Amino acid sequence: MKTSLCLLFTALFFSCYSYAAVEAVPQQLRGPNCRTHPTDLVFIVDSSRSVRPSEFEQVKVFLSQVLESLDVGVNNTRVGVLNYASSVKNEFSLKTHKTKAALLQAVKKIQPLSTGTMTGLAIQYAINHAFTEGEGARLKSSGVKKVAIVVTDGRPQDGVKDISARARESGIELFAIGVGRVDMTTLRQIASEPLDEHVDYVESYSVIEKLSKKFQEAFCETADLCSTGDHDCQQICVSSPGSYTCACREGYTLNDDGKTCNACGASAIDLVFLIDGSKSVRPENFELVKQFINQIVESVDVGNNKAHVGLVQYSSSVRQEFPLGRFNNKREIKTAVKKMSYMEKGTMTGQALKYLIDNTFTISNGGRPGVSKVGIVFTDGRSQDYINDAALKAKELGKAFLRPSIMD
Question: Gene Ontology terms, cellular component aspect (predicted)?
Fold first, then answer.
């Protein structure tokens, strides 16, 4: 559990109600602070009839962005690409290109096949050919991970469940990226566990590039930048893979530069908790979150002209537990939190953030004009939809967001 981290941030937050920016923009670092694990990586890319040429070009941009973050070489990461539609074309194998520059040039030359969608056939080809020693894959005894990233936009015309299970049993870690009207069941049948980390969905090819950061972080092995002192934080440094975030001690607020702190005073706030109630959280952890929320409520000065508190739970859908201002004292709020039941389904964090922005702080839901708006998001892992656009919109609208992680 990462509860200690949550408690640290919460102490910082509630000592200063006028907090202007609870979560700073992470400082991204590569080079000596971030190297990628040696990996045998194969992209399995759908170029069937439903993928327009302009969309396929965007897939190639996504591939190139991921490749840019890798340490490519014979003793580092090797990369292959399978292009598929009704048949499978081995664009290049793990042994073909030994430099990043050569890989990037090869990706530019890939052309779509423009026929059917035989995803199962492509995964079978990866098992039987792409990840063999003859095609450049390293022996299992070497400890090098085998990773396949499947990108598809439609329903396969063959089965994927059994062949994907065979791939996973053979030691291949499978990621599934779905685009547009893709069948989500198919993605879940392809992907490795945990599904929250291995299944991604984007609405269209125009935004697939945004997923590149996820895979850059997934392949990144970093030093603890905070413990080494390699950061610019004035007061508190919080490490994360490939980056760090600055925070402030009790009685201070983080400035817009994301690094320095100013002393602050208290004021009224509209505070909404957004709680992940997905199946992966598990009932016992959900109860811990409820207890933690009530600890926070106990530390807040609740009242008509002080703090108003609202609560929203989400999983595959969003449910408002109670709006801002419904309860005017801590006892009623804490009782309502205790009664909250566990939804136990998927993890649609992007959808929930959009609901938080568009609905919970409105006047009709108890929001007060001129009062600071604060959202605290509890989540246990990767969302099944995209969150960055919603989070950016929230910050642009002047709401501060604290996003503690609640799970192992």
Answer: extracellular matrix; extracellular region
DSSP secondary-structure letter at 334?
Answer: H
For the chain, the distance separating the N- and C-terminal CA atoms, rounded to the nearest angstrom, is: 4
What own/partner pairs with CB < 8 Å and gap ≥ 24 does 326-332 have?
Answer: 326/366, 327/302, 328/302, 328/303, 328/304, 329/302, 329/303, 330/297, 330/298, 330/300, 330/302
Cβ pair 254, 36 in contact under 8 A: no
Please provide residue 19's backbone torsions phi and psi, each rounded to the nearest 5 degrees: -55, 120
Whole-prediction pTM: 0.53
Helix (H, G, I), strand (E, B) or coil at 120: helix
List the Cα angle 288/291/292 in 5-degree steps: 85
Q: Is the peptide bond before 283 cis (omega within 30 degrees of 0)?
A: no
Fold of 32-221: Rossmann fold (3.40.50)
Question: What value, to the nearest 5°, has the Cα angle with vertex 290 and ends 371 and 25?
Answer: 50
Length of the chain: 408
Helix (H, G, I), strand (E, B) or coil at 317: coil
- Give SS3 for 247: strand
Which pairing describes strands 243-247 and 39-46: parallel, antiparallel, or unpaired?
unpaired
CATH 3.40.50.410 given to domain 3-19+264-402? yes
Q: What stretch(es) of the chain map to CATH 3.40.50.410?
A: 3-19+264-402, 32-221
Q: In this predicted model, what pLDDT tens digit does every residue of 202-250 receive, in sequence order?
A: 988 888 888 888 887 777 765 567 876 778 898 899 877 557 789 888 7
